[in-house]
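Researcher: I'd like a candidate sequence for this fold, 375 residues long. If you have to choose between options at a position, lean toward the conservative one.
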């Protein structure tokens, strides 16, 4: 399967060669026969184990591989724009001209360390993860043997503190928003009691709302990418139905009066889709200040608020998962598990009351009576 040839007329006379699984002959020249034998044995062992890779494959440069890799991904427009931004600003300036096989752990560690001095740990983690995914695909495609990023740990990211509003705070905030823009109060209440994402709410059409049955069908989402709106499916690519509390259905019915089926439920003051930046600047920030909301409150926190209000009303993990459109109950528990833990004491009290209200109490013998029981 392989052979070693001596060529006295060459500067490096010992040549080892073998036929690869790609149907081509691969060879390398050495000064000493022992080095040629060692190299050949190593390559043949890799062939036997299915670990052999064409050395030419790893010579593809990172910037070219990044283009190929991105084209092969099915991504939402916002996600693709985010990947392109990280590649352009963080990955390619350092590794773009490297051959895939030249990217090594020590250089990756230095890259992460330098980046940490400029941006926060979350951004560093995102950049590392993108490089990891890109090189992991190169491993799968047999361009390189190992992923060097796997041996470099990701930086620790401290999660942002979750903010949950009470029902009273939602009312205060909604009233403050309504004073600044007509319909904004209804939007705040809608987000706080349904758990829809911002993009799902602003993409909602009149035909998706059934007031009589108090149901909303979530079938699409709007995402702002580089100043333009992209319309697509919800984040998990799955549609879902959310039930409305009666009071919210009544308010929404007034809000929907006169709309045609294709009209957007929530719009900008002059019509057209709501833009996140305009709403945050013109309505949200001023309303939060006027109503005394916690510092740093985000529109997305209304989604967490919806989960909190549902859990406090007795909703199960599965019900909250379906309402929020999470891909699994585990994701819901990982995100909001602490809220369920707060109800454990109340659960213990209910179980104690259930036991005490039982008609028949178990008649276990006392320890002192056990010795006198007949044998």
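Model: Candidate sequence:
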């Amino acid at each position: 399967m392989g052979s070693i040839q001596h060529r006295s007329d060459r500067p490096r006379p010992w040549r080892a060669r073998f036929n690869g699984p790609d149907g081509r002959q691969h060879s390398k020249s050495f000064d000493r026969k022992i080095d040629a034998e060692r190299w050949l044995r190593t390559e043949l062992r890799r062939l036997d184990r299915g670990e052999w890779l064409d050395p030419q494959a790893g010579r593809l440069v990172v910037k070219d591989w990044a283009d190929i890799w991105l084209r092969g991904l099915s991504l939402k427009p916002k996600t693709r724009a985010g990947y392109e931004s990280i590649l352009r600003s963080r990955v390619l300036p350092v590794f773009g001209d490297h051959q895939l096989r030249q990217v090594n752990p020590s250089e990756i560690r230095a890259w992460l360390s330098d980046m940490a001095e400029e941006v926060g740990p979350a951004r560093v983690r995102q950049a590392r993860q993108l490089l990891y995914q890109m090189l992991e695909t190169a491993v799968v495609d047999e361009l390189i043997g190992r992923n060097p990023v796997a041996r470099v740990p990701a930086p620790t990211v401290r999660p942002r503190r979750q903010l949950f509003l009470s029902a009273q705070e939602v009312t205060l905030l909604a009233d403050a928003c309504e004073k600044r823009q007509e319909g904004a109060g209804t939007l705040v209440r809608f987000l706080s009691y349904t758990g829809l994402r911002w993009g799902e709410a602003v993409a909602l059409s009149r035909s998706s709302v059934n007031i009589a049955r108090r149901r909303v069908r979530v079938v699409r989402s709007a995402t702002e990418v580089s100043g333009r709106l992209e319309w697509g499916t919800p984040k998990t690519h799955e549609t879902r139905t959310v039930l409305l509390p009666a009071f919210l259905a009544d308010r929404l019915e007034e809000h929907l009066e006169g709309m045609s089926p294709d009209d957007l439920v929530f719009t900008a003051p002059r019509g057209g889709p709501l833009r996140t930046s305009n709403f945050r600047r013109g309505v949200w920030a001023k309303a939060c200040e006027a109503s005394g909301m916690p510092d740093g409150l985000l529109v997305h926190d209304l989604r967490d608020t919806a989960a909190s209000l549902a859990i406090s009303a007795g909703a199960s993990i599965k019900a909250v998962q379906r309402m929020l459109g999470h891909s699994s109950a585990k994701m819901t528990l990982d995100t909001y598990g602490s809220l369920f833990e707060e109800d454990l004491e109340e659960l213990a009290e209910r179980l104690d009351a259930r036991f005490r209200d039982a008609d028949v109490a178990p008649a276990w013998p006392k320890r002192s009576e056990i010795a006198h029981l007949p044998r």
